[in-house]
Amino acid sequence: MTDQNSNDQLPTIQPDKFYDPSEIVLVGMNISGINSPRAADVKIDTEGSNSFSRIALQLWHTPNCELALVNAYIYEGRKYELPKPKIMVVSGKGEELPGNYFPNNRPLKFWRMSKLARTAEVTVEEGLLETLVLEANLPGRRSPNSYAANMQMAHRSGRLNS
């Protein structure tokens, strides 16, 4: 998140009117396109060379939402960096932060949202098919609910009735 300024040098984001303990401030940039304010393209490398494809994301029936690439958030006065940026649906237009924090002078924005607000996160993983399908399904990397659930009934001496 740095170009000329350091991450720790972000301007202070003051509370809107009063302190709200349920407020989360998302910090990132609007990735929606210029022609369509509610659509975004995500570039993916398809062949490992100079060729690439794009995934088009578009919001429907959401007049007050944008697609944002969120890099950090502020909660209860503390700023937390995300280990990997997230593509999220955010409500409102966002407010611009002064300064250039990204290459090509892309403006950094912030969105004030309630921690109880409903949203969506879009995850895009890119890599070899072996990594994304086979290795992700190895034991130890799967979610616990994907393992086969077997139940056995046991009783003293293997008898169910006395």
Binned strand content: 35-45%
Q: How much helicity do the residues have?
A: under 10%
Radius of gyration: 22 Å
Largest sheet: 6 strands, antiparallel
Shape: extended
The count of strands amounts to 8
> Stretches where pLDDT falls below 50 for ≥5 residues?
1-8
Written as H for each helix and E for each strand, in order along the chain, the element string is EEEEEEEEH
Q: Please state how the strands of the largest beta sheet are arranged side by side.
A: 6-7-1-4-5-8
**What class would the helix/strand composition place it in?**
mainly beta
Mean pLDDT: 73
**What is the helix tally?**
1
Give the N-to-C terminal Cα separation: 69 Å
Give the helix/strand layout.
Layout: E1 23-30, E2 39-45, E3 52-58, E4 65-75, E5 78-91, E6 95-97, E7 108-114, E8 121-122, H1 129-134
Antiparallel strand pairs: 1-4, 1-7, 2-3, 4-5, 5-8, 6-7
Protein model, in words:
- This protein has 162 residues and is mostly beta strands.
- It has a domain of 111 residues.
- The protein is built from 1 helix and 8 strands.
- The strands form 2 sheets. The protein has a 6-stranded antiparallel beta sheet, with no helix packed on it. Strands 2-3 form a two-stranded antiparallel ribbon.
- A hairpin with a 6-residue loop joins strand 2 and strand 3.
- The longest helix is centred in the last third of the chain and has 6 residues.
- The radius of gyration is 22 Å and the shape is extended.
- The N terminus is likely disordered.
